[in-house]
Amino acid sequence: MAKILVIAEHLDGKLNSAVAKTVSAAAAIGGDIDVLVLAADPAAIAAQAAQIAGVGKVLTVANPANEHAVAQVQAPQIAKAATGYSHVFGASTTTGKDLMPAVAALLGVNQVSDLMAVEGPHTFKRPIYAGNAIITVEVPADQVVVATVRAASWPEAAKGNNAAVEAISVDATLPSHTRFVGLAAGKSDRPDLQSAKRVVSGGRGVGSEENFKVIYQLADKLGAAVGASRAAVDAGYVPSDMQVGQTGKIIAPELYVAVGISGAIQHLTGIKDAGTIVAINKDGDAPIFEVADIGLVGDLFAILPELEAALG
Ligand code: FAD
């Protein structure tokens, strides 16, 4: 029977919602699911992880070295804690993508990246070529499976569990060559782009940083997060943490409104799992309309004020 260890990503005392999605992927395999929390003081994070349905146990490693999530510090501890587990799963977030390959290397196995579907305990599907093709990968049955889970492909596991929390100690040698220097994070009062239920994104068609205010206004009316295409980021209209797509954020909101975005494949790969896609573009032949559920052909500077007025 599978024994799966899910790594708890957290920041500022909050468990990342991708952890509950990673637990859903683990549940698709079946077997025992434990969550591992590495922190200086893991109690609050452990309490949040214990609520996730399907979790059997929450294991905690308290160590001042775990004050900040540094992959090189976490990986040796995870590799030790993974003893006896058949699978070690992390979310395919920026942090998880940094951490899990190091864990895989320490365990002497290849990592399965961006796991989007479970075919069997050792057989998985993942996107390749910017989401244009799906490949089935098989891990040798005698190897531990180390994987990053594509959060956008999985629903959050429900809350309401009350799993046992168990403190463990791991005999891992921590590196001295890597240390935490600082964290620079953007601050916004708007919903978080990666977990928002509604997202309004602007592209090159918006034309300037100043014009982007029409995107922010619509987003605020909808209670939505704001995203952007890479062209908008490269042109300096918005910061790069707002980029949606292959080299930006992969998101799965219930509503995605693409404004002045042509619909290049590298952008579409970031919204493959979105619910309803609304496209506003003056070019009726723009590829975005091939994936849009609702398309409005016209000038965004005429359509957005009308839309806003209609929203009241
Ligand atoms: P354009 O393609 O220039 O489209 C602008 C659109 O705005 C046009 O369709 C136009 O009709 C419309 N428009 C103009 N004016 C108006 C108006 N007044 N009203 C209404 N519509 C108007 N792109 C990403 O987005 N995310 C990524 O992560 C990403 N990763 C990449 C990775 C690689 C390796 C490569 C090669 C490319 C990547 N790209 C990515 C870039 C991608 O190929 C496109 O260049 C980019 O998505 C185009 O952005 P855009 O749609 O805003 O601009």
From TrEMBL:
CDD domains per record: ETF_alpha
SMART domains attached to this UniProt entry: ETF (SM00893)
PROSITE patterns: ETF_ALPHA
SUPFAM superfamilies referenced in this protein's UniProt entry, alphabetically: Adenine nucleotide alpha hydrolases-like (SSF52402), DHS-like NAD/FAD-binding domain (SSF52467)
Ranges of residues in domain Electron transfer flavoprotein alpha/beta-subunit N-terminal: 4-184
Listed Pfam families: ETF, ETF_alpha
Family label: Belongs to the ETF alpha-subunit/FixB family.
Protein name: Electron transfer flavoprotein subunit beta
